[in-house]
Write a structure and sequence with these properties.
Elements: H1 3-8, E1 21-23, E2 42-45, E3 53-55, H2 79-84, E4 95-98, E5 110-118, E6 124-129, E7 148-151, E8 156-158
Antiparallel strand pairs: 1-2, 2-3, 4-5, 4-8, 5-6, 6-7
């Protein structure tokens, strides 16, 4: 790995994933034919409210995004902490119409909300089924094959009947 490759793989804060990092630049040197490694230089995140500091070797790759640890600059909390405070607004058993993501002006299929779930970043999600009583997960932690799942509230319209 060259010096440039190494720094591309060690560029983001491991706590908040900001790429606003201050680094010291003393040693090490790149030796031709040897993999470059930086265990010498220090790094410090410049994102207000983060405060992480450590070695350059502890930084995350630019392409590595861990959304649940990213800090929302408006709240100072991780996006996951913020999302976990959100509640599901549509009750289980409610008839909803799935609004097609590609063409929301034309209504979609009507199904019953059968489970409240969450995305990896804590976003409230919904699972629906054609059968109102299909509310028990056959395998804990997994959606039933009969469920249409992973929908956010913005893509659902509550129906009266």
């Amino acid at each position: 790995m060259t010096r440039d490759d190494y720094h591309a793989h060690h560029a983001r804060c491991p706590k908040c994933l900001s790429d606003d990092i201050e680094q010291t630049t003393a040693g090490p040197i790149e030796i031709p034919g040897k993999p470059y490694q930086d265990n010498v230089n220090d790094a410090r995140c410049q994102n207000p409210g983060c405060g992480w500091s450590g070695k350059v070797s502890g930084l995350q790759p630019r392409s590595h995004a861990i959304v649940n640890r990213m800090i929302d600059p408006d709240t100072g909390e991780s996006f996951k902490e913020t999302n976990l405070k959100k509640t599901h607004g549509i009750p289980i058993g409610k008839l909803v119409e799935l609004m097609p993501r590609t063409d929301p002006e034309h209504g979609g299929v009507r199904l019953y909300v059968v489970a409240h779930t969450r995305d990896c970043d804590g976003t409230p999600l919904y699972a629906m089924s054609a059968t109102k009583s299909d509310t028990e997960a056959r395998q804990p932690g997994f959606a039933n094959p009969s469920w249409e799942h992973g929908w956010t509230e913005e893509n659902l319209m509550e129906c009266d009947s």
